[in-house]
Write a structure and sequence with these properties.
Helices cover 78% and strands 0% of the residues. The chain is an all-alpha fold. It has one domain: Up-down Bundle (Growth Hormone, Chain: A). The longest helix is centred in the N-terminal third of the chain and has 31 residues.
Length: 420
């Protein structure tokens, strides 16, 4: 239910509604062909990524040492809800561009730090034998929650989503997050720590570097996975951040069509992620990741080649991509969960967030770079927005190559069906 409750920030705000709204040259620039707001969106996301890289490992350590993981997750969840609702103040004018980008970046920061505590709670509810199914179920529930709230927005707007509808939907997202995350805080309690520790910032960062050295010495495969997953997770984040922008500006979708696509995509992604969770436990998380990344790279290249074919191309190949994005993310989470020693979940998932965000400038930088390259190639008067696809695909391909050298974790508990 936490995935379900917080999904509006990823689905509605970052991807299909607010991200498209604030990247629009019509709303925040000089006209429809103005790509400056889309480029500024990339800059804001890169800055947020740098802050996440600095904060995540220290905050993850703190949760392990204090035993207050759920307490931290609770206030972080409420902060995310408040930021979501505050986006209502971003009116369609260039005057409000930086307010919108600042709130969006702050929301990404809070959401990622909250994820550290949420991912670490996997050890409370899953074992190595079924963590793939548990992770896939959670991620899939998130997608299904995303489709429901998108449908609500479409219905409440009468099918024609204007700037006022976008702003009002931000209030709905904030309320949704507060209401549907209540179950996790009632079901999971903090585990007391016998000797809680408090450390200053300098000591915390010393411990981060000591942790990296310790993991490299004892489990170098974990370090290689952290590096490879950092690349492909940033590419997957780029798919979410810029996918709807491409649908609207490169493939000719209207705002309402983007929402309909988002609804169908979330159903597809949710069911696929739940199904792949079972394959994760049977075949191994690495195979699921490789299959997913290879498919996304191929489909992304097809979208670039077929960008002039209009909406049908994005419906076919963009929708096919959604079959694999969720499984790759869920399998990455379960892969690492199988490697973590007991009592170090916050620390390791903090490093997971840090390594991911340490390179999180890549997808956004490649997006901006390829937009610039496209502007040199595309005839004047035509939008180069489709060139951004190549930047995202390049980052995903790098992650795929890195993942090839990572060994699968040993399975201490061979898969046993629940009914046995």
């Amino acid at each position: 239910m936490w995935d379900w409750g917080t999904q509006p920030f990823a689905t509605v705000i970052t991807t299909f509604v607010f991200g498209v709204y604030i990247a629009s040259g019509t709303n925040f620039g000089t006209g429809e062909q103005d790509t400056a707001p889309a480029a500024m969106l990339g800059v804001a996301m890169a800055i947020a990524g740098a802050l996440i890289a600095l904060l995540a490992p220290v905050l993850g350590q703190g949760s392990d040492r204090s035993g207050h993981r759920m307490r931290h997750l609770r206030w972080q969840t409420w902060a995310l809800a408040a930021i979501s609702a505050a986006l209502w103040f971003v009116a369609p004018s260039s005057t409000y561009l930086w307010l919108g980008l600042g709130l969006l970046a702050a929301g990404n920061l809070v959401a990622e730090v909250a994820n550290v505590n949420y991912y670490a709670s996997l050890e409370e509810v899953a074992t190595p034998a079924d963590v793939g199914r548990v992770s896939g179920l959670g991620w899939g529930m998130g997608y299904l929650g995303g489709i429901l709230i998108l449908l609500l927005i479409v219905v409440l707007s009468g099918g024609d989503v204007d700037a006022g509808d976008v702003r009002n939907s931000m209030l709905l997202c904030g309320a949704w997050t507060v209401v549907f995350t209540i179950p996790i805080f009632r079901a999971i309690r903090d585990t007391p720590v016998e000797q809680p520790e408090r450390r200053d910032v300098v000591d915390a960062y010393r411990e981060v570097f000591a942790s990296v050295r310790r993991i490299w010495r004892l489990a170098p495969n974990t370090v290689w996975f952290l590096l490879a997953s950092a690349l492909f997770r940033d590419g997957l984040a780029g798919v979410f951040t810029y996918g709807a922008v491409l649908a609207k500006d490169a493939f000719g979708f209207s705002t309402a069509q983007v929402l309909v696509f988002g609804a169908v995509a979330n159903i597809t992604a949710g069911l696929a992620t739940i199904a792949f969770g079972h394959l994760d436990d049977r075949l191994g998380a690495k195979r699921v990741i490789l299959i997913s990344l290879g498919s996304i790279v191929a489909l992304g290249l097809l979208l670039f080649v077929l960008h002039a074919q209009g909406p049908w191309a994005f419906w076919v190949f963009g929708l096919a991509m959604t079959l694999f994005v969720g499984p790759a993310q869920s399998a990455s989470r379960s892969f690492l969960a199988r490697l973590i020693p007991e009592g170090h979940s916050g620390e390791v998932f903090g490093l997971y967030a840090t390594t991911g965000r340490a390179v999180s400038f890549l997808a956004s930088t490649m997006w901006v770079l390829f937009l610039w390259i496209g502007s040199l190639v595309v005839p004047e008067g035509r939008s180069p927005i489709h060139f951004g696809i190549l930047g995202i695909v390049l980052v995903l391909a790098a992650g795929l190559v890195g993942m090839l050298r990572v060994a699968s974790p040993p399975d201490p508990n061979p898969y046993v069906p629940r009914d046995q």
